[in-house]
Design a protein that fits this description.
alpha/beta, TIM Barrel, binds ligand C2E, binds calcium ion
Length: about 300
Amino acid sequence: MPVDKQLKKTSDNALETPAVSDADLVIAIRENQFVVHYQPKIDTRTLEFVSVEALVRWNHPILGEVIPDKFIPLAEQSDHIHGITDIVLRTALEQSAQWRELGLDLRTSINISGASLEDPDLPEQIYNISRSFDVPADKVVLEITETWQSQDIAATTLILNGLVEKGFGLALDDVGTGHSNFAKLDGMPYSEMKLDKTHIHSATVDEETRQFISMCVELGHEMGMYVVAEGIERQDQWEMMSAMGCDEGQGYFIARPMPGDQIQGWLKRWNTYLGLAENHQRESGPKVNLDEMTGTFHRLNSIFPTKLDI
Ligand code: C2E
Ligand code: CA
Ligand code: CA
């Protein structure tokens, strides 16, 4: 049932969010009602801004912004997911090309649903899109969730290898939410491992989680992957993940996902913050009070313009 009809039905209960329907998704894809936000990833050693993850939102004409957890699972039950993946790839790579013109040499990570890995044409399709925007393949990373169970492992491996042959990076996403059967990773061409945010959140209070993360970091590095910690919300989590050997960090502590035209302004504030942190370190010795500096960073956020036209 389309959402406007459901809204009438549920209008007595303001808390009830009507589920989106298949028919709404068809319209959303036809009219491209989607927007893509970008969340920065930071190198834990150099504090350099190295990469963004593209995260889709549905700008629904009645419901407003709908988060992906409310519509991606529905889209994955039908072919609609392919239409959404295509829109996100084109939007994110066009944005990536605009950043490159401005001198921002970032990797762009895009979430690919497991269902899309059943299409043997996928490597060629993504390659054609990246070529059309002149974005080098090695600046594009495709994130594939660990929880996805392939029906035909041999066929999927062929597609994954096809993506790697084209030069794309592959990230194993949400590590720790599925079976984490690392034996089956042997021979899989992943270049990046992303630890799920649930583990980052419990790591500061739970020894078992810390052991799991240590094992992942060690295994990831042994397999030639770089390891990313997702969902870092606090300084102690940031410090722990850096100390445990994660190569990159992502989370609200650094930045929330934002529209593409705000990234340049964010980077300006981030670089100003790093400059201030360096001065602070020179004056106060090697132990930087990052809490104080984070306060400064958040104040800078309100001083600098958040929107730059690019
Ligand atoms: P994910 O791939 O695990 O993406 C990370 C999610 O964690 C994002 O939620 C992000 O906004 C959120 N996040 C980032 N930092 C923090 C933090 O510090 N704390 C907390 N609590 N959350 C944080 P989002 O954008 O709502 O996306 C949810 C999921 O939807 C994604 O999880 C991904 O599985 C899926 N998704 C998003 N965009 C796409 C897309 O274009 N295609 C497909 N197939 N799936 C997508
Ligand atoms: Ca992801
Ligand atoms: Ca995750």
